[in-house]
């Protein structure tokens, strides 16, 4: 059986009892960074053998009937993280797959954004090319849904500028950095306002979830039930 196990986004208190129990009972845990995951395991007193993600090795062990856990550095594996290939192979081998519920940065960010989240478009990390970014944002905006994007502190200002070119400065925006961590921060307003706020800072730290909605704020209160 392959267990897809979520880990805390930042606050270790968010680790679920089921996730702890699973990591303690499987034959091995596969992760992105053994140093980071070892810290998590040690915190909870878990000594299960730990290995760096390797799909061929995992498939071989699953084929021999071993129970394995897949984790990412933070959040739910396979969401903009490695792992979906081995999950697909485990399904094909009929070894059994289960995914434990838990924290995901994109859904957690959307829940706190104040933007429409009844449905949304998740673009993960965008390509570096501004031209490709514009095409992806424009295609997503055509669906008239909130768009969620992961971005690093080094490129978030440029991403917001690109989004402004496509959607206009009055589009709704919310960004969150360091989600669930000590310095968690939310910035909400129009794309113009959020871009101006971040561009004015001398230093930007932390990983970001950027959320934009193509409609201007005046349409935010509109709903089918209104």
Q: Would you write up a description of this structure?
A:
This protein is an alpha/beta fold and 226 residues long. The strands form 2 sheets. A 5-stranded parallel β-sheet has the order 3-2-4-1-5, with helices on both faces. The chain contains 8 helices and 10 strands. α3 packs parallel to α4. The protein folds into 2 domains: 98 residues, 3-Layer(aba) Sandwich (Cobalt-precorrin-4 Transmethylase, domain 1), CATH 3.40.1010; 115 residues, Methyltransferase, Cobalt-precorrin-4 Transmethylase, Domain 2 (2-Layer Sandwich). Helix content is 35%, strand content 22%.
Write the layout of secondary structure elements.
Elements: E1 2-4, H1 17-25, E2 28-31, H2 34-43, E3 50-52, H3 55-63, E4 68-70, H4 84-93, E5 97-99, H5 105-113, E6 120-125, H6 130-141, E7 146-151, H7 156-167, E8 171-177, E9 185-190, H8 191-199, E10 208-216
Parallel strand pairs: 1-4, 1-5, 2-3, 2-4, 6-7
Antiparallel strand pairs: 7-10, 8-9, 8-10
């Amino acid at each position: 059986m392959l267990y897809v196990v979520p880990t805390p986004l930042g606050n270790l208190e968010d680790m679920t009892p089921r996730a702890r129990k699973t990591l303690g009972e499987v034959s091995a845990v596969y992760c992105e960074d053994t140093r980071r995951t070892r810290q998590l395991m040690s915190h909870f007193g878990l000594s299960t053998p730990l290995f760096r993600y390797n799909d061929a090795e995992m498939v071989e062990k699953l084929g021999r009937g071993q129970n394995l856990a897949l984790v990412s550095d933070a959040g739910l594996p396979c969401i903009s993280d490695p792992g979906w290939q081995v999950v697909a192979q485990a399904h094909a081998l009929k070894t059994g797959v289960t995914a434990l519920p838990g924290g995901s940065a994109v859904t957690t960010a959307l829940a706190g954004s104040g933007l429409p989240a009844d449905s949304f478009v998740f673009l993960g990390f965008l390509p570096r090319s501004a031209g490709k970014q514009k095409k992806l944002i424009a295609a997503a905006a055509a669906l008239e849904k909130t768009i969620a994007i992961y971005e690093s502190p080094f490129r978030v200002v440029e991403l917001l500028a690109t989004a402004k070119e496509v959607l206009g400065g009055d589009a709704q925006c919310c960004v969150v950095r360091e989600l669930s961590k000590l310095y968690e921060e939310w910035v909400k307003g129009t794309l113009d306002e959020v871009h101006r706020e971040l561009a004015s800072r001398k230093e930007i730290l932390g990983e970001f979830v950027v959320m934009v909605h193509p409609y201007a704020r005046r349409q935010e209160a509109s709903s089918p039930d209104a």
